TrEMBL record:
GO terms for molecular function: transmembrane transporter activity. CDD domains: TM_PBP1_transp_TpRbsC_like (cd06580). The chain crosses the membrane at residues 20-38, 69-90, 102-119, 125-146, 158-178, 204-222, 252-275, 331-349. It is found in: Cell membrane. The keyword Transferase does not apply. Keywords: Cell membrane, Membrane, Transmembrane, Transmembrane helix. This is Sugar ABC transporter, permease protein. Its main location: membrane. Coiled coil: none annotated. GO terms for cellular component: plasma membrane. It comes from Clostridium acetobutylicum (strain ATCC 824 / DSM 792 / JCM 1419 / IAM 19013 / LMG 5710 / NBRC 13948 / NRRL B-527 / VKM B-1787 / 2291 / W).
Length: 365
């Protein structure tokens, strides 16, 4: 009987946790429809027709046929890695806004390692994966160490590391023998370094499977291991964690390193599976910043990052078809923004609830 009650309680809690993200998606669609009506000249009485048009185009643009489904998975894959990377940092009470730079360093490491000749795919691909993990992890260790040792703000440090990573990639591409002269790009990586594609008609590849496995493994680490317990304890209450014998400084560095390693892995997988070379970058790719949105929508649950990444990937994938149907692609960004604003209100409500609870405890005590 007790076991049945636990199962029911678990299902109820799961549904409660899903309620807010699902509501945020519905609200974002509700708002976006008004802009569709404005762009296509619909009357206010044609609201449901505009809603139908929007949903139909998004679904058709993302899942219209096998090729479109596979192309959508190309958008989903990097968001999955950066979403999980940000979720780990959030769980530990950190804001790793540097996942963009860590992802970029993962790209660079894969572009360099992928040029090594004469290797078997069984050696070359794992080497690229290891390189991405090390590059991202070491890059994230810097703001993590500064936060743990000196208490400096990881947001500011990691933002600066993003731009250092960007210009470091440009330096390698434009000023070293690795880049192709006068072409502002690195050579195409060897065939042995490229990830297996699902279809010759699409760039979708086994990187998606690696990302899903990564989300599952991180979820297991956070929920089933001592490391995960310590990371969550530091995120929930640093002072209580230290009182219980958990090192706050060690876990801050550890969380940043794991977060950066996953972002770097995402960059390596993206290059090995999709880009196959890196170029002179005029600006950041944006996957790290979009990963923040994925993590927030998933409520920092690594498994929840899978459907959240799919949602944002679907929106990105359908943007071209929206334009072809006289709907501005900015509608995609509008939907994403409303989702994040709506999800953020949940965190604000919880913050004031906790503040009120602590005040009541102090008064009663």
């Amino acid at each position: 009987m007790k076991k049945d009650n636990k199962i029911v309680s678990g299902i109820v809690n799961a549904l409660k946790s899903l309620a807010f993200p699902m509501a945020s998606v519905l609200v974002s669609l509700f708002v976006a429809v008004f802009f569709v009506m404005w762009s296509k000249g619909y009357a206010i009485t044609q609201y449901f027709q505009a809603l139908t048009d929007l949903i139909t185009i998004i679904v058709k643009g993302s899942f219209g046929d096998k090729t479109k489904i596979l192309d959508t998975m190309v958008f989903v894959t990097p968001l999955l890695f950066t979403g999980v990377a940000n979720a780990i940092a959030f769980k530990t009470g950190l804001f790793n806004i540097g996942t963009e730079g860590q992802f970029t360093l993962g790209l660079l490491s894969a572009a360099v390692i992928g040029l090594i000749p004469g290797l078997s795919p069984w050696i070359h691909v794992p080497l690229i994966i290891l390189g991405g993990i090390l590059a991202g992890g070491l890059w994230a260790a810097v703001p993590g160490f500064l936060k743990a040792k000196f208490g400096t703000n990881e947001v500011i440090n990691s933002i600066m590391m993003n731009y250092i990573a960007l210009y470091f990639v440009n330096l390698i591409v434009l000023r070293t023998p690795i880049g192709i002269p006068n072409k502002a790009t690195t050579p195409i990586i060897k065939k042995s370094a490229q990830l297996i594609q699902f279809s010759p008609r699409s760039n979708a590849n086994i990187g998606l499977i690696i990302g899903i496995l990564c989300a599952v493994i991180v979820y297991w680490i956070l929920s089933k291991t001592v490391w995960g317990y310590e990371l969550r304890a530091v995120g929930t209450s640093p002072l209580a964690a230290e009182y219980g014998g958990i090192s706050k400084a060690k876990n801050i560095v550890l969380a940043m390193v794991i977060s950066g390693a996953i972002a770097g892995l995402g960059g390596a997988v993206h290059l090995a599976g999709f880009m196959h070379s890196t170029t002179d970058m005029m600006g950041t790719l944006g996957y790290g910043f979009d990963g923040i949105s994925v993590a927030l929508l998933a409520k920092n649950n690594p498994i929840g990052c899978i459907p959240a990444a799919v949602l944002f990937g679907v929106l990105d994938s359908s943007s071209r078809l929206l334009q072809l149907n006289s709907i501005p692609k900015e509608i995609v960004y509008l939907i994403q923004a409303v989702v994040i604003i709506f999800v953020s209100t949940d965190y604000i409500v919880k913050y004031f609830k906790n503040k009120k609870r602590k005040k009541e405890v102090a008064i009663n005590g």
